[in-house]
Structures are given as C-alpha cells and as structure tokens.
Known about the structure:
Number of helices: 5
Number of domains: 4
Low-confidence stretches: 1-24
Strand content: over 45%
Amino acid sequence: MQRVLGSLVVAAALLAAVPAAAQANGWVCEASALRAQVLTAPAIEPATANRGAGDCKQASGGGGVTPALPVGLRATALTASTVLDGPVAPASDQVARSSGIISGVAISALPGLPIDLPQPDFSDVKAINVPGVGTIDLRPALQALIQPRALPNVDLLSVGAAKSEASAQCVSGVPRFRGSSSLTTVAVNGVEIGLDSATTEAVKLIDSQSIDPSDIDVSKIVRPPGVSLAVLQAALQPILDQLPDIAVPATVARIKLTPNERVESGTRLSQRALHAVITIAGQQLVDAVVGESTVGTDGVSCGGVADLALQCQTRRLVLIDVFQQGNRVRLLGAADRKYVGKRIRVRLMATRKTVARPRVRRDGTFRATAPLPDAKIRDTSKARYEASRGKERSMRLKLHRRMLVKSMRSRHGNITIAGQVVQPLAAPVRTVVVKRRVSCRDWKVVKRFKPRSDGTFTVKLPAPRSGFAAAYRMSTRVKHFSYRAKTYPTFTLPRYVDLG
Length: 500
C-alpha cells in the first residue's frame, strides 16, 4: 500500500512539473451576423455564436429570425454559427469553422436623428454697426430664414445578402487560416453599385441654398435699449439691401464601404463580408460590420518546428541555435504565434547592443545574421546572445561550442544532418550518439557514428513515420587540450527540422 501511495505521489509531482505551455490549448471560433453602432449609442450584436467562449465549439445564434434593431437599421434574417470538426484530440486533426449570414440589410437616415446639420458662415453679420442705433447681431434673424428640413426617409445603403466564412486547421505543421465572403446586390441611395474593392460614395441629402439678408424679420433682432422697432427697421434696411446673399451648405452623407475585409494577426483571422461607415455632416451615423467570421489559435500545437521548440517549456521565445558561418553569426529561433509578423530583438550580451531584428515568420520561426563579435571575446563565455520581445526573454546562448550542427534537411523520407566536432578530438575519435524526439517524451537514440578525422560529419537518418517536425541532439567526448588524454562530454543544442 505504501508503495502504491509513493508511486501516486511521484506521478503527481511529475505531472505538476510539466510546463503549462506544454498543455495544448484549443482552436478559437466566433461568428456575428451584424455588429453596428448608431451615433454614440453602444454597439449592438443581435446574432452571435460562441462570442467570448474561448475554445471553439458548436454554437449558433439568430436562427434566421428578424431581430429588433435600433432606429435607422433593418434586416430580414440573421444567422451566426460555429463548429469544431474532427476528433476530440489532438487539435492538429481538428478544423475550426465559423460563418455569419445576413439578408435584407438596410441603413437609412430617418427623421428625428440628432445630427447637427451644416451651418452658414455668419461671421460677417454677427456685429453690424447701424448709425444712430449701435452694434447689432443679425444671426438670430438670419437663422430664422433657414427652413428646417428633416433628413429624407431614404435607404442610404442596402444589401440583398451577405455571408462570411472562416476556417482554421493545421497544414504541414503550421496553423493555417482561410476566409471568404460574398455579397449580393449592394445599393447606395437606391442605385445598385458594383463593389469589388473599397470605395467611398457621396449622397447629397439636402441641396445647398442661399439666404437674402433683406428678407429677415427685424423683430427677431435683439434691439439696443430705447430703440423702437420702427427706428431699427428704417436704419437697418439700407444696410440689409447691400449685404450679399449668404450660402447654406448642402448636407452630404459619405458612405465608406470595404467588402471582403480581412483583419489578420499571427493567431487570429476575422473575415468580414462588408464593413460600412456612414457619416453625415462629418458626424458618424453608423459603423456596421455585416457578416463576420473569426477563427484563431489559443496555443494549438500543430507539431511544426516552432511548436516543438516551445512545447516543453514555459518560455514563449527561444533561440534555437547561434553559430559562426564564415564571417557572420547565424541566429535561429522560434516564437509564440502571437508574435508572427513582429520583430524580435537579438542582443550580444557582452555589449548589450542589438545586433539583429528579425521578423517572426508565419510558421513561428525567425532567422537572422549578425556581425562577428570582437576577436577578444569571440571564443569566451562573454559572446552570448539573447532574443527578446517586450518582457519575454530567451535563454542566452554561447557563440562557440565544441559541437555544432551547421545544416539539417528533410527530403524523400530521410533527415540529413551536417556539422562538426571542434578539435582537439579524443584519441581515438569517439562515437557520436544521435538522439531524437517528436514530442515532450524522452529522447530516443536513433544513430551512432564516428566523425571524420577533422571532426566534420554528414549523417543520414530515416525520418520518423509520424509528426510534422522532429528534434535532434548529438553528443560525444572531446579533449580540452591536445596533449592530455582526459576527455569530457560535449553536446549540440537541440535542432529542429520540418518533416513535410
């Protein structure tokens, strides 16, 4: 019984020691048929699926019913849906899908919307000097001449139907996102338009007009104390007759339309059928996203090089290898997919200076070269390199080591590794042991061989039958000094190769 309890305690301790990053998370999927903000009111989303739920799962919203929408918006039917296809595990065999569908969409400028219309330029008439009367302000009387007009009850924008779809899955060890969308008839102010790319349409809602100052009602003017209406009328009329007409600008709606909009980062894709922003007189009337589908990855391990390099540790940024190649330093690394498209800073720790700023590739890896450090420190422990992004830091790798991998290649079911054991070698030359792993499990010995007399080697190995990537590490024994017989162990850094 005590042995059983002891085994359970050990097993629990081993499970607790597994880094959190090694526990694969899932795919993300969300969908929204419509998201819209009218004026300054909070945005509404009447039909969503799996919004904010985290992991992707089957969900639906809307059900095709006609929703209650704010004034200015109409829609016939809305449907949002998400689904996760494939087995319960692993995530690398699953496909996350989402779709947003809407029909009969219309956006109108209805009467009563609290939009401030353009005002005439009254700067020349706010202080008119009338002989025998004093200074008066004509603006209240001129304002009264502008006949108030409500915005016409017209559909500024209408869409017959819109649909967006997005999917995410592992392809050759890398998360791949796909998105597509479609629109049927799109009309602006009742006129159908072809919408192949982003465009901005202008719709005149109220024509420009002009005001004749001589037509004002003098009783609308605030008279100076002691001045009668008759006196003011007689003194002011000659001045009014000489004033030019005042222009009242037109009221224009500007409709910015972006079809097939993609919002993409390294870990997420949002596919939108249509993004419409409508402004009237410089004020936003509506900001609407019509049909939106989102997919993404929350740490899904597809088994590629970057995933394999990161899955067995808590660090989200790794320098895989640093070595001299000719008169340059080669830098290889991997980063969490949230850093895809972003730059990584690599510093030489002896000087604390940035020597490279590679960009993370779509597969999560990054590569760069840097100048060789000063010869005085090149062969010392001071020549170490660190990769960083924000607060994330990699381990610091030494430039010169006694055993190096210079290239790895996967082809026709075989892995070819070339490298060198740096002299002085053991006498006789010791065997090199090659170990491999394809997950966080223990390393497995897959080959033993002896390098050439100068320490260089090229070895060919059969690729593993499963997985998208593999890690290899080699070890042997070397001398510290050529004149001493004692040997010491030396290792390569783990190196990773895509198997596709």
